Amino acid sequence: MGAKFSEDQVHEYLYQRGLETLIEDVPEIDADPEALPPMEEDVDFELWRILKARAVEKIEALHHTIRYGRFLGSKVKLPTDNTRPIELDLFGEHEDGLFILELKVDRSAERNAFSELLAYSNYIAGIFPLSGHKDIANVLVANLDNKITKQAYLYDLLINDRNVIVYKPVFSDGTLQSLKLQLHLPSDEDFLHLTNALLSHNAMSCVVASFSDLEGWFDSEEEHGDLQSHTKKHLSGLSAYAAQLMESEHLHGFCFIRKPWREIPRHHRNSLIICALNPFQIAPEDRADAILEQIGDSDRSSFFESPLYGFHGRLLRLAKRAVNDCLTHNYDCELEMPSWSAMVVSAQEVVFTHNFAFQPTGVLREAYTYYLNRAYAIEAQGGSVDDHSLLKINEIRNWLRAWEFMEMCGFSGDEAADSDVHLDSEDE
């Protein structure tokens, strides 16, 4: 964006003209879905492609309501505890509620764009008790030239799951009156950068909460090699509740129930397994060089170790709470944190067991359900796909199907690559 216009000039012009007259059409997402060609069966289901498709769907939904939004206020002062109030550029209403808009003309101010935008959003949300981070839509008008800002946008859109959209201001003939707002769609490179670190079992932290049978409620009795219905019903409820706790803490991963075969000796006959992507386990150290240079040598290791152990503590407390909340009062359980990359290829852990009540959360849930919906759509168009249950929920909760999906995405590890272990599943 040229420096010939001040932010105040662009702000006033935007406020007077309104969004509907300035936002440009987007052929890529404005096309009639019914007019699109039939879906092909040989789709490459790499994780970054799935996340990109999911993000574009979300951006499309926001774009179709924000572009018809109406401004309610301009340069609104928001009182704070400080002597000087913060100033919200613009806010208004759209089909799904309220939105706020932050305008950034100066490229040097772009790095602070999202921190300011979300601060204003949180302020407005705070007016309405119990409103959440998705109740207020966030609009940024900026060039988004900086790589760090692009990643911040994608992170808030997918990882924090906020309703946030970005438009680029364009002046076709160099005059203020030629201003148009072009929708920003993240590039393939942006999604690749986000997902590269996620495609490894080593990125997962795992907690196993093990406990004994409770006669009449969940036990190890089998009929024709399958568990009794009451056992699966009650332990599936535990897994579903654990997934709710994971979602409430914005953890991206999955949980499921493991029970050893009846003839396999094991002190504890039941285990709730919780796995989550640990951002502190996969963070490249060179990205923190600017900060580490300002920390004493003896304290640099703590920069990575402290949050890593803190994340482990969160998972342990979550697993303990799930058992305490769901089973009998003070039901005893044993907690451990095995290496998921080793556990997932161990025959003792995943083959000679009943694995069921799989529950994906966060980004993995979004990617997995998108993949399943795509597969069912291909089947509906007469395509050839694997034998699926009529109900999609049976596939979402199927441990083996989920594992096959992760392998299809490239989810792997050194141990997994060398293993011929076959994963058993109770949910087929």
Report on the architecture of this protein.
The chain is of the alpha+beta class and 428 residues long. It is 40% helix and 20% strand. The protein is built from 16 helices and 13 strands. It has helices at 7-17, 19-22, 27-30, 47-66, 113-126, 147-159, 188-195, 229-248, 289-292, 300-326, 340-343, 347-350, 362-380, 392-396, 399-409, 414-417; strands at residues 70-78, 86-94, 97-103, 136-141, 164-171, 179-183, 204-211, 222-223, 226-227, 253-260, 270-277, 334-336, 353-361. Strands 1-2-3-4-5-6 form a six-stranded mixed β-sheet, with helices on both faces. Strands 12-7-11-10-13 form a five-stranded antiparallel β-sheet. Strand 4 (136-141), helix 6 and strand 5 form a beta-alpha-beta unit. The chain starts with 6 loop residues before the first helix and ends in an 11-residue tail after the last helix.
Which structural class do you get from the secondary structure elements? alpha+beta
Low-confidence stretches: 32-39, 413-425
Relative strand content: 15-25%
How would the global form be characterised?
Answer: elongated
What percentage of residues falls in helices of 4 or more residues? 40-55%
Distance between the termini: 55 Å
| DSSP strand tally | 13
Largest sheet: 6 strands, mixed
